[in-house]
Request: fold
Amino acid sequence: MIPLRDENPSSTRPGVTMAIIALNAAVFVYELTLGPALREFMLDWGLVPARLSIALHGGESVVLVAPTIFTSLFLHGGWMHLLGNMWYLWIFGDNVEDRLGHARYLAFYLIGGVAASIAHVVTAPYSSAPTIGASGAIATVLGAYAVAFPRARVITLIPLFVFIRIMALPALLVLGLWFVFQLFTGFLSLGFGAQGGVAWWAHIGGFAFGMLAMRLFGGTRPQASHAWVE
Reply:
C-alpha cells in the first residue's frame, strides 16, 4: 500500500516539517557533488554500529562518534530513498507538528530518530555498514500519528496484481499494516544477520517510541471536529 495523502487538515503551517524536508534535500544535493569522496563521507557521518559499540567500550572517543546518531538522519542513499522518506513525512508530519507545537515536534522528531538508531545498534552491534536515512525518525512520526489520529482517512493506492485501486482507509489500518510488515521483516533479518540493507529495527524502534511518547505528550486528546473525516 502506498499512501497518497490524508484527509486530515492541520490548523497551522508545518514550518518544522518543511524545514526538515528542505534540509534533507539540501544535504542530498551536496552528496551528489562529492563524487568518489561520497563513500568516505557516509562512513564519517553515517551511523556505523560497530564504531559506536567500540566507542562505548572505550576503544574510540564517544564524543567523536555520538554526533553520527544525529547526522545520519539527514543522509540518503539515492533519489528514491530520499523521496520515499520525505513523502511519508509530508503526509503525516504536519498533523503531528500541529498537535505537538513546533518546538516540541522538532525535539520529538530528533529524539525519536535517536531511539530508532539505538534500536538498530542493539540488533546489529557489530555491523560495519553505515546506517543512513530519516526513516527511523519518520517512523516515530508515523507511530505518533497512529495514536493521535487513528480514524483519520488516508487515501491509499493498493496494487492488486495487474489492478490498482485507490481507497480511503483509516490511518490506524494503513500504519498498523506498515508496522506489522516491519516487524515481520525485522525478525526475519535477525535470522540472516543484520549486516546491511534496510535497518528494519530502526523503523520498529522509532514507531514504538512514537506511539509511547505521543501518549506521554498528551497526543490522545480529542480531535477537533474538522479532523474526523468518516
